[in-house]
Amino acid sequence: MAGAIVLTALTFSGCSQKKSASTADPSAPLPEVQVTHVRQGTVQQTVQLNATAVFRRQHVLKSPVTGYVVKSFAEPGQMVRKGDPVFVIETKESRALGNSLDSLNRKLGLSGRMTIRASVSGYVAAISHQTGDFVPEGEPLATINDRNSMVFILNIPVEWPSIIRRGESLPVQLPDGRKLSGVVTETLPSVDQAAQTRQVIIRVDKAGVVPEGLIAKVSLVQQEKANTQILPKAAVLANETENHFWVMKMHGKETAVKVPVTTGIQTADSVEILAPQFQPSDEILTTGNYGVPDTLNVKVIR
């Protein structure tokens, strides 16, 4: 009698569990996901390098006479135009003779002072003498960076012989957000022995005020492939060592399955898919795909 009661209880319990399971599964909400499609296009692998602003030509203003600096018009970093006054020099003889020479000079229409003017348009890089200094003939007074000689020097590794070509257009990104249009004019025929890099000269037009030594960013295309399969980076998953990749592809209307893929070029937001060959209609998960099993019932949000 006791055995019959136990058997009846177990049978009732089993029926209850089956009923519960059958009613719980349909009512459980499916994970919501979003999908995308493989597109055909061009993908580029780029590298960003630093480029330094330099002036390739500098002009040194020298004193044409022995005398004293009585006036200085420029300061380091100041922009000057060709012909602008930079210094006034009083000759040694004029300072020694004083008023008597001034009276004679006025009668003869002469002056004991000379104005030193900028020989080029550019930025004053250095001032060697200030007001009151004694300067011998030929003494450097100031150095002016020729504005028209400003270029960016880009150091590229020697193992990249064909990554950049003469005449190639390259965007130059300044720290203040400005983007300049640069053109490669030449590659210097020398190699930095320690760094094993070569110097590439990039000339820019309409650069505005760019101080010497400013570091800009230049993006170079290392590799490019056209007419290839591309997926958003969010659609491609990888293991911890990133040597195995896969995507979750919809199979039917509610099931997502794991599909191993072989990847190629990767950018900040896209991944090239070398294999397998997907169809344009294939739906690949972009959200809700992380850490899910091989086969998963999902609800696609359109």
UniProtKB/TrEMBL annotation:
<dbReference type="InterPro" id="IPR011053">
    <property type="entry name" value="Single_hybrid_motif"/>
</dbReference>
<protein>
    <recommendedName>
        <fullName>HlyD family secretion protein</fullName>
    </recommendedName>
</protein>
